[in-house]
Amino acid sequence: MQENALQIMNNCNNFFADSQIISIVILIVSLLISIVIGLIVATMISGPLKEMKAKVNAPATGDLMQMMNSKGC
To answer: E strand or H helix at 33, and its extent?
Structure first.
């Protein structure tokens, strides 16, 4: 009876340790995915802003032939 209880306790401890490892792996993968998504969104926002800044500053250098596309929502 006591051996059976010890076996069950060991199984529970192993399950708990495995659960912790799986949780940590899921946390790290989720963190990496969120960083990648954040970088993609930041690039999608900053790219058109840099292009617009260059076109807005072009007349200051004498280039009056810059065309701006009006894209929006």
So the answer is: helix 2-57
